[in-house]
Amino acid sequence: MLGLLTLAMVTFALVAPWRLPAVVALVAMGAFAFGAVPALQMRIMRYAGAAPTLASGSNIAAFNVGNATGAWIGGLTISAGLGYVSTLWAGAAMAGAALLTAVVASRADRLPKCTAELDTAKAHAGATA
């Protein structure tokens, strides 16, 4: 979803001068942004362990920090005289950075966790052999 959100924001920036394509891109941007929430929520809940309420609250807090940061960066781009469309480019960059972070985190999940876990797995494998 984050890749589609990035693509929708870039498309929106490119078609912003034209009303109908801009509205279509706006709807797509909203749909992809909204669609990313359940996947991100499920990811954090997978690691919540015995504290699902804390994890869920932290996730919502992170969304709020992201909203505030996006508004701040958008304000900076407009204040710098880059125009209103610059907010879309900044948002696309933020969504792209989020996608990169998600890819790195996903790949990190596939790596062995720690030596103790490997030792336990080896001991278990040896005991069953």
From TrEMBL:
Keyword Transport applies: no
Location within or outside the cell: Cell membrane
GO cellular component: plasma membrane
Top-level lineage group: Bacteria
Membrane topology of this protein: Multi-pass membrane protein
SUPFAM superfamilies tied to this protein: MFS general substrate transporter (SSF103473)
Primary subcellular site in the record, as a coarse category: membrane
Ranges that cross the membrane: 23-40, 61-82, 88-105
Keyword Nuclease annotated: no
Sorted UniProt keywords: Cell membrane, Membrane, Transmembrane, Transmembrane helix
GO molecular function, a single term: transmembrane transporter activity
Cited PANTHER family: CHLORAMPHENICOL EFFLUX PUMP RV0191, PURINE EFFLUX PUMP PBUE
Protein name per the record: MFS transporter
Record organism: Metallococcus carri
